[in-house]
Amino acid sequence: MVNIGGLIKTSLTDYPDKISCIIFTNACNFSCPYCYNPSLVRGSVKNIKEHEIFDFLEERKNLLDGVVITGGEPTIQIGIIEFTKKIKALGYSVKLDTNGSRPEILKELIEKNLIDYVAMDVKAPAEKYSLVSGESLKTINESISLIINSKVEHEFRSTVLPALHNGSDILAMAEMIKGGKILFLQQFYSGETLDPDFKNKPAFGIEELMQIAGECSQYIPTKIRGYDTEIKMGQDAKQGK
């Protein structure tokens, strides 16, 4: 059984080119200090019964195109394979959001054609990964390789903030996922965070982040989430051309 902590009934933005709902699983095996869903990370949100989710999905079959499964971290849920299989049986496309810590689960979901799109968070460069997430790099690299070499539509994404990342860090993160389809850099926004000390940490200025994104594009196409201005690459980005 999957522990479900939340449901957004309609989203136009979370699944590319699809009208979707978002299912939030309870609990996460990472402790990213800037996480804006601390109650989900701790698993302290009251569970929604699984049958309520499937009743809802049955009712919305002709209105929704896809289902986003996010968290928390979905792949730590014991019943995630069967849960996803039941969603696919209703005819939905499935997008999985993951931190990449369970490559064996990710592999099974891909091999059984149970997910149509995967978004993986990249938290830090190799030497800092355990500091940010508490996870070893081996499983992360396995998941990155699995995603890049699969035929599943995908994106990588990184929430970045000066308190944890500098430009060189972000560039190294992009190099880690070289060969991937796209990297989205996501601005950090102040508010409730897992570590209260991060509540009011400053974000990158948009011009600085655009320059960093341009540098990252030498390894993987890079965009800033929610910002449509074209990202220029390399020296052009540095010089503001």
Provide the structure class: alpha/beta
Beta-strand percentage range: 15-25%
Unreliable residue runs: 232-241
Helix content: 25-40%
Domain module count = 1
Order of helices and strands: EEHHEHEHEHHEHEHEH
- Terminal CA distance: 54 Å
Characterize the main sheet: 8 strands, mixed
What is the gyration radius calculated from CA atoms? 18 Å
Compute the number of helices.
9
Mean pLDDT: 91
Largest sheet, spatial ordering of strands: 1-2-3-4-5-6-7-8
Total count of strands: 8
Q: What CATH first level would be assigned?
A: Alpha Beta
> What is the fold-level CATH name, i.e. the topology?
TIM Barrel
* CATH superfamily caption: Aldolase class I
From the spread of the alpha carbons, the general shape counts as globular
CATH architecture: Alpha-Beta Barrel
Textual characterization of the structure:
The protein has 241 residues and is an alpha/beta fold. It has one domain (4-239): Alpha-Beta Barrel (TIM Barrel), CATH 3.20.20. It has nine helices and eight strands. Strands 1-2-3-4-5-6-7-8 form an eight-stranded mixed beta sheet, covered by helices on one side. Helix 8 links the parallel strand 7 (183-187) and strand 8. Helix 4 (103-111) runs parallel beside helix 6 and helix 7 (167-176) packs parallel to helix 8 (206-216). Mean pLDDT is 91; it is low at 232-241.
Write the layout of secondary structure elements.
Elements: E1 4-11, E2 20-25, H1 38-42, H2 50-59, E3 66-70, H3 80-89, E4 93-98, H4 103-111, E5 117-121, H5 129-133, H6 137-149, E6 153-160, H7 167-176, E7 183-187, H8 206-216, E8 222-224, H9 234-239
Parallel strand pairs: 2-3, 3-4, 4-5, 5-6, 6-7, 7-8
Antiparallel strand pairs: 1-2
